[in-house]
Design brief:
Layout: H1 20-24, E1 30-35, E2 40-45, E3 56-62, H2 64-85
Antiparallel strand pairs: 1-2, 2-3
Length: 108
């Protein structure tokens, strides 16, 4: 039976819970994004300078629609951050991240 006495301000709200393990988070300084026609895969990696191997710390799989929402939310939050703290410096244009990740080279 539905609760008709529910506060109108509570309708449509989502109660989100987070475990302690997830709340601790994972540090990542590299994200690798791949996609197919139906999903975007974002691998978050902690690459250490001078170390030729790095592990994926977290993988998030999104629909194209949710990937676009995430992009817009990140843009909005970066604008808010920069309005409070100043412009975030972009990555040095001369910086080239090795993209082979220690695996075999791709072949056509």
């Amino acid at each position: 039976m539905a609760d008709n006495n529910q506060n109108p301000s509570q309708k449509g709200q989502l109660n989100i819970e987070i475990s302690e393990e997830v709340a601790d988070g994972n540090y990542a300084n590299l994200a690798v994004i791949t996609h197919s026609h139906s999903e975007f895969i974002v691998d978050f990696i902690n690459a250490m300078p001078g170390v030729p191997k790095a592990k994926v710390k977290s993988r998030i799989i999104l629909t194209p629609q949710h990937a676009k929402r995430l992009m817009r939310a990140l843009q909005d939050n970066i604008q808010k951050f920069e309005s409070m703290h100043g412009t975030v410096a972009d990555v040095d244009p001369g910086f080239n991240m090795p993209m082979n990740f220690g695996g075999p080279a791709g072949q056509a």
